[in-house]
Design a protein that fits this description.
Chain lengths: ~500, ~260
């Protein structure tokens, strides 16, 4: 993956990035800072995966916001504010997304630069202010942070008119654990475990991203077999999670026969994960340099057997789901996100592809030759289900071809890396997890330790989409909408 | 409809018939101490590699006096220590019944050492929940633990057959299942959820994060596990714990820890 790193003056930042995104079709991958005295902007070229990292020095803790021209920047600018105290001027709605009231108001966890610092308008002073919708008959429904089902915590504030949602505000940050800071506190060799537990249901994507990020600091290529095993792990994870999400959608409309059948075949995906890595959630398998252990041909054969089982089951089951009359009635036309809004907010993953966004980080990844995109255009709950159903089958074919290659080659699966990271290096990676694009960026200090590590989970882009999709829909359809985006709270909150 | 019924009937009952089985051969499980002598000072490979500092080695005057203590409550079952140990003092444990009633019991010691922690321990009075419990789940972590609780309720493991069901409000819950390390913003919601429960009530910490904070311990988010906030009656270690381990923990709470059947 080609990475270009350059400086960009604050005066030119707005126009340069605006042009690169609007005219040259680049995407904003990540906006962050190292210690609070500069901005880092990572742009991704979706055509070939080339990355441009811009570093902009700041004189003060104010900078012009990009969000009014490039809405996809709006959430990340909030995060930068919360973590570093950097204020994006003219941001349409700056609010606290990660730190809650119990934190002291002048606490900016990742701001490490010394020198005078006048604490800006507090991101979390007093009570959090929800957007208020006024008018006759408008009432609010607060939900969360603890939900009725078995899911992560977050707060939804619905403003409703009758049964219809007028506005939904999403408040997150309940599971902010300080993952990025922790990564600067431990030896980089232990970092992969922290990356994995950022959001363990996509631990493979996080682990691969972490490994590729470190490897790109060393400018190293890992052995071919390791790359194949990583693809295998990532696709097994995708199959498992897509099946779980399809089952969840069926469960949310009370189609329990389908829901439990999906849970059952998800078990097969878990079994594949266990055969491959010894763990159902594929943890502790991928490491910088390759993978931790090889997989024997006998194991590969067992995995193959599971693949065949899935191959017979999945088409039958997805057909039963997608052609069911009740499913069509409940899911079509519900929770729509138009193509234009999806573009503006740079939606990623199945949610983006269901709204016609032709972007999947696998399309430019060297380990995915002949990759084909799953695309739908309606942008409703049904399309998101269809995209997942198609992707499961595609992943199964990828798994098959990778298994073939693995059986026919013998080679190294691991490359020993030096003890210290190269000094003052920068590394970056983009991985398509089951939720979509996951960006990671690492910087090392003079002595080869990690001085800054950032993640941008797919959910950072996609949470806005849920707020858009819920609007003008029935309150009763909200759980379905929510499920169809399969968002991560922990991946967002870190 | 007919298609669906045929499909369901063709697949029959898929639920595991035994209550508790050893984890499969492919599974790594959690580490356990085999009793084989440890090399002590000259080695310490496991201690240095452990991502959560779960291992402590107390050097004695000779090999036979060298002790390992391994805190499963901090262990994220990465299996590094098992892979590294040259003397096979640490091996993998395929018994899913890893839950314990106290934090101390999660610390495995090779004979001769003892460890004490200050974690709050739950109720010691007679157990009111022997046959059936209604559980409320509060997630404060990364969702993998939650998904394993859901999996424990799926058609394969089916915890309802042991009298465990998940309810949607603390008001009618007997047991609070907490996952995740409970970071700062969840301290208060968790307390309030507990206070909303009627007595008698019990708390189970599900997963390594919930047991000790796991990889997040001592971060600025004060995510040090459930026992910093509430008294805990059962700890279930693992990152995430296997669905059978979760069931074992629930059964332990009901004084009905199942015996381990043989894997056929
Ligand atoms: S398996 Fe547990 S005790 Fe062993 S190294 Fe990993 S985290 Fe530490
Ligand atoms: S114990 Fe592991 S799986 Fe469970 S919440 Fe913590 S990091 Fe996630």
């Amino acid at each position: 993956m080609k990475i270009a790193h350059s400086r960009l003056e604050l005066n030119n930042r707005h126009s340069t990035i605006n042009k690169l995104v609007k005219e040259d079709g680049m995407r904003i991958g990540l906006i962050s800072s190292i210690d609070g005295s500069q901005l880092l902007t990572v742009l991704i070229d979706p055509k070939n995966g080339e990355l441009q990292i811009f570093e902009t020095s700041l004189e003060s803790h104010h900078y012009p916001s990009l969000s009014r021209c490039l809405p996809s920047a709006h959430w990340q600018e909030r995060i930068v504010w919360n973590m570093f105290g950097l204020v994006p001027e003219e941001h349409p709605r700056l609010k606290q997304v990660l730190l809650h009231e119990p934190y002291s108001a002048d606490f900016f966890p990742l701001r490490t630069v010394s020198g005078p610092f006048e604490v800006p308008e507090r991101p979390h002073q007093g009570q959090y202010q929800f957007l208020e919708v006024k008018g006759d008959g408008v009432y609010e429904i607060p939900v969360g942070p603890i939900h009725a089902g078995i899911i992560e915590p977050g707060h939804f504030r619905f403003s409703c008119l009758g049964e219809v949602i007028v506005n939904l505000e999403i408040r997150l940050g309940y599971v902010h654990r300080g993952v990025e800071k922790r990564l600067t506190e431990v030896n980089w060799r232990k970092g992969r475990f922290i990356a994995e537990s950022a959001a363990s249901d996509s631990s493979t994507a996080y682990a691969i991203g972490f490994a590729e990020c470190i490897e790109s600091m060393f400018s190293l290529e890992v052995p071919h077999r390791a790359r194949l095993l990583r693809v295998l792990a990532l696709e097994v994870e995708r199959v498992g999670m897509h099946l779980a999400d399809l089952g969840g959608l069926a469960g949310d409309i009370g189609f329990l026969a389908a829901a439990s059948s999906f849970q059952r075949i998800r078990g097969i995906a878990f079994r594949m994960a266990e055969l491959l890595t010894g763990q159902r959630f594929l943890r502790a398998f991928i490491c910088p340099g390759g993978v931790v252990r090889d997989v024997s041909t006998a194991m590969l054969k067992d995995i193959s057997a599971s693949v065949s089982k899935l191959q017979t089951e999945i088409p039958v089951l997805t057909e039963m789901l997608l052609e069911n009359q009740g499913v069509n009635d409940r899911m079509r036309g519900v929770g729509r996100v138009s193509h234009w809004l999806a573009l503006d907010f740079a939606l990623v993953g199945p949610s983006g592809r269901a709204s016609g966004i032709e972007y999947d980080a696998r399309q430019f990844h060297p380990d995915y030759p002949d990759f084909e995109l799953a695309l739908q255009t309606e942008g409703d709950v049904y399309s998101r289900a269809v995209v997942r159903a198609i992707e499961v089958q595609k992943s199964i074919s990828i798994i098959e071809s990778v298994l073939d290659k693995l059986c026919n080659e013998e080679s190294q699966f691991f490359l020993q890396l030096p003890e210290d990271l190269p000094p003052n290096a920068i590394g970056c990676s983009v991985v398509e997890g089951h939720r979509g694009e996951l960006v990671q960026l690492a910087l090392s200090d003079q002595s080869g330790r990690i001085k800054r590590y950032c993640f941008k989970d797919a959910s950072v882009n996609n949470w806005t989409a849920l707020a858009i999709a819920a609007r003008n829909n029935l309150v009763a359809d909200f759980p379905l909408c929510n499920k169809s985006f399969a968002l991560a709270y922990s991946g967002h909150d870190l | 409809m007919l298609k669906l019924l045929t499909y369901l009937l063709r697949n029959g009952v898929v639920t595991q018939t035994e209550a508790m089985l050893p984890l499969s051969e492919a599974s790594l499980g959690m580490p356990q101490l085999s009793g084989a002598a440890c090399l002590g000072e000259s080695c310490k490979l496991c201690r240095d590699a452990c991502p959560t500092d779960a291992i402590n080695i107390v050097d004695g005057s000779s090999i036979s006096k060298t002790f390992i203590s391994l805190d499963r409550g901090a262990c994220i079952n990465c299996s590094l220590c098992i892979d590294l140990c040259p003397t096979k003092s640490i091996v993998s444990d395929r018994d899913p019944r890893t839950a314990a009633r106290t934090r101390d019991e999660l610390v495995l010691n090779s004979p001769g050492t003892s460890q004490h922690s200050s974690a709050q321990t739950g109720s010691t009075s007679a157990n009111p929940f022997k046959r059936s419990i209604a559980c409320r789940v509060v997630s404060t972590g990364c969702s993998a633990c939650d998904q394993e609780i859901s999996a424990a309720a799926n058609p394969i493991f089916d915890m309802e057959r042991f009298g465990v069901h998940v309810v949607a409000s603390p008001r009618f819950a007997d047991v609070l299942l907490v996952t995740g390390p409970v970071p700062k913003a969840m301290h208060d919601p968790l307390k309030r959820c507990y206070e909303a429960m009627a007595e008698p009530r019990r708390v189970i910490a599900v997963g390594t994060c919930a047991s000790s904070g796991g990889v997040h311990r001592d971060s600025y988010s004060e995510a040090n596990g459930v026992s910093d906030i509430l008294p805990v009656d059962v700890f279930i270690p693992g990152c995430p714990p296997h669905p059978m381990s979760i069931i074992a923990g629930l059964m332990l709470l009901m004084d009905r820890l199942p015996v381990l059947s043989d894997r056929k």
